[in-house]
Design goal:
Layout: E1 5-9, H1 18-33, E2 37-40, H2 46-57, E3 62-67, H3 68-73, E4 82-86, H4 89-99, E5 102-105, H5 110-124, E6 132-135, H6 142-153, H7 159-163, E7 165-168, H8 171-180
Parallel strand pairs: 1-2, 1-5, 2-3, 3-4, 5-6, 6-7
The structure holds adenosine monophosphate (AMP).
């Protein structure tokens, strides 16, 4: 599978644990080493800003996608390789999806989950075969992963769909999993 650009969804806040931004920087470095460009929400704040700065510092490509209304509020990053300013949240997600070959969620809040789960829903519907992974820094997503297992037990999600979500706690191992990813064709409703 060829991966030229990875879209990273992550918090517009830095979070309580310094490891969240540290791992964002590590992911930025790992992407650059592999000559993979970063697609993200275009802000210079929080975990978002840290991953963008890391890729830029290491000489990589960063493409930001930000809605006009959030440009000031989220403090758009001025030093990116490219910044797309779009009309609204929907166009933001659509463009990020279109130009990316894979998706990662770092620790973040409701926005991060909204963006990531929309792409994961499309995986489940078979609309794309792009890998999706959670970077589970300091077990931040443990409770979410438990809840996904609960959804499987309660028969709202199939085990095979659950397994399509890749998870690891280091950028290196998560990206390795992306390159080994073999999408499975499964109907959502059987
Ligand atoms: P958060 O994880 O809540 O800090 O948000 C991370 C990013 O997600 C920020 O850039 C938010 O503007 C963005 N965001 C929040 N909700 C949405 C949405 N519905 N569609 C697209 N982006 C969103």
């Amino acid at each position: 599978m060829e991966i030229k650009k990875v879209c990273v969804f992550c918090g517009s806040s830095p979070g309580a644990n310094a490891q969240y931004t540290k791992k964002a920087e590590e992911l930025g470095l790992e992407l650059t080493k592999r000559k993979i460009g970063l697609v993200y929400g275009g802000a210079k704040i929080g975990v978002m800003g840290r991953i963008a700065d890391s890729v830029l510092k290491n000489g990589g490509e960063v493409i930001g996608v930000i809605p006009e209304a959030l440009k000031l509020k989220e403090v758009a990053h001025e030093g990116l390789s490219k910044l797309h300013v779009v009309d609204n949240m929907h166009s933001r997600k659509a463009l990020m999806y279109e130009i990316s070959d894979a998706f990662i969620a770092l620790p973040g809040g409701i926005g991060t989950l909204d963006e990531f789960f929309e792409i994961l829903t499309w995986t489940q519907l078979g609309l794309h075969q792009k890998p999706c992974g959670l970077l589970n820094v300091c077990n931040y997503y443990d409770k979410l992963l438990d809840f996904l297992d609960h959804m499987v037990s309660e028969k709202f999600v199939t085990r095979r769909h659950r397994e399509m979500l890749l998870v690891d706690d280091t950028p290196l191992k998560l990206l390795d999993k992306f390159f080994d990813y073999h999408p499975i064709q499964l109907k959502k409703w059987i």
